[in-house]
Specification:
Elements lengths: L2 E6 L10 E4 L17 E2 L7 H7 L6 H12 L3 H10 L4 E6 L8 H10 L1
Parallel strand pairs: 1-4, 2-3, 2-4
Helix pairs in contact: 1-2, 2-4
Length: 115
């Protein structure tokens, strides 16, 4: 198994990224679709709009956000299992746009995928 990595979508793509999947509900500002070299954009794996707006990238809300997001992900087992299968043969890089590298949905998603 290779596994899962996190990367801001604003960082240049590299061949070490393996399977590149954007896990944001909204398209990242200033990014051209042809430049980011995505294998997939999965809006369904992103937090609901309501949860994303409530969290508003405020670190004090992160633990509550993570708990609520994990609950949302329980309904996404098919997508999660598919990504786990891909990760058995190559890296899966979870791409996100947030500036905060420690308090964002990709961090939570990676934990869920690895559990």
């Amino acid at each position: 198994m290779d596994g899962f990595k996190l990367k801001r979508i604003y960082e240049a793509p590299s061949k070490e990224d393996g399977y590149r999947i954007l896990v944001d509900r909204l398209w990242p500002r200033g990014q051209r679709k042809d430049a980011v070299q995505l294998d997939e954009w999965n809006k369904d794996l992103a937090p609901s709009s309501e949860l994303r707006q409530w969290f508003d990238h405020q670190p004090p809300r992160f633990e509550a956000f993570a708990t609520r997001y994990r609950e949302e992900l329980t309904a996404k087992t098919e997508d999660l299992d598919r990504l786990r299968d891909i990760a058995k043969t190559k890296w899966v890089t979870l791409l996100y746009a947030a500036k905060d590298e420690h308090h964002n949905q990709a961090v939570v998603l990676k934990q869920v995928l690895e559990s």
